[in-house]
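User: Study the chain.
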Amino acid sequence: MTTKHNAPFSSELQSKIDLLKARRRPVQMGSIHFDSPLLLAPMSSIGTAPFRLLMEDLGAGGTVSELISCHGINYKNIRTVDMLKVDPREKNMGLQLFGENAKAMSEAAKVAESFGPKFIDINMGCPVKKVVGTGAGSSLLKDTSTLGNFFGEIKKAIRIPLTIKIRIGWDQDSINAMEVIHIAKEEGVEFVAVHGRTRSQQYTGHANWELLEHLGAKAPLDIIGNGDLHTASFVREKMKTTKCQALMLGRGPLRNPFLFLEAYLHENEEIFFTPEDHFEVMQKLVDYSRDYAHSDHILLISVRKHLIWMAAGYNNVGAFRDLVFKTPDLNETMKIAEDFFSTQKDKRKRLQDHDAFMTSGHG
């Protein structure tokens, strides 16, 4: 595949980006500096280097990779090791590992550190069966007696900061996030991202922000609140009121890539991102992705899913989706996308805040 030079955004789009980026304020979490308190959450098959780069361009203060298997790293699986690559243009990113064995995680963390991330993050929140069934992900929350040694062994293996991402507990009868955070503090973990659901909830229902605020106010480590931060209005509200030291956005930016920026809009401010802006963003993602895709077919699959997410909230999405999935060529797919976005009569995206989105899980 031919590598392209990354083209800049148009001056009109870049001016909006620059205006809103200038309103951000940096935050220090443990020893790690982020450009803003709004961070990109780790998402399986989504938090790749191209998407992380795009989100940094569009205002994310820091990013975390998709979850990466410690065993795949230790077995030197080529695809797994490829997931560790940190783009030199990335500023504030962490690599997230998952596994159930302290020794295997420690060995993998050493390898991951050699790729140059700012920190190593342990996945303790993934609820999907193929991860939980191995004893990894949110399964680690079930027996806290083993966590001290688990954290300590990994911490000793690396020189860069160690962080964790957890859920509030395994189920409603075992809410133990505060206990886990205290153990993490004792073993040198620097901050904790907390998804405000239990494992049994998966991605259904609502995040428990009452508990997240309690953790933000009382926990001995800096806390990143995560869950249901899908709309600019809710993110703005939380930025004003939260006791958490930072916020983590996951599914929201997939349908609204400007969410990290719109969080900084002033009340009644007449700045909005057009359908043409969304197409420019998609072009940029394709441009970044060419450097990383193993084949044109894999690139096309990735482009399709991001196009459908990004088209949400515009007119005639169903017909557009059908056409995108029937088109076998990337260039033709992008021509179809350009036509779709450029012919939208309503220049504002209309998303329903209550719409269920990716409730089957994403890692």
